[in-house]
Amino acid sequence: MARKFYIRTFGCQMNEADSERLAGVLEADGLEPTDDPGKADVVVLNTCCIRENADNKLYGHLGMLKSLQAERPGMQIAVGGCLAQKDKELVQLRAPHVDAVWGTHNVGRAAELLREAAAEGPVMEVLEAAPEDQGFASALPVRRQCAHAAWVTIQVGCDNSCAFCIVPAVRGPEVSRAFGKLLAEVEGLARSGVVEVTLLGQNVNSYGRDITVSLRRGAGGPGEHSPAGEGRAAGEGRAAGEGRAAGEGRAAGEAEFRAGPVWARSDERRARPLFADLLRAIGAVPGIRRVRFTSPHPKDLRPETIAAMAETAEVCEHLHLPLQSGSDVTLAAMRRGYTTSRYLARLAAARAAIDDLAVTTDLIVGFPGETEDDFSRTLEVVAEAAYDSAYMFIFSPRPGTRAAEMTEVFVPPDVVAERFERLKVVVERSALARHLARIGRVEEVLVEGPSKRDPSRLSGRTRQNKLVHFVPPSGGLGSGAFVQVRVTSAAPHYLAGELVDVGLTGGRRRIPLRVG
Question: What's the pTM value of the predicted model, to 2 decimals?
Answer without folding.
Answer: 0.81
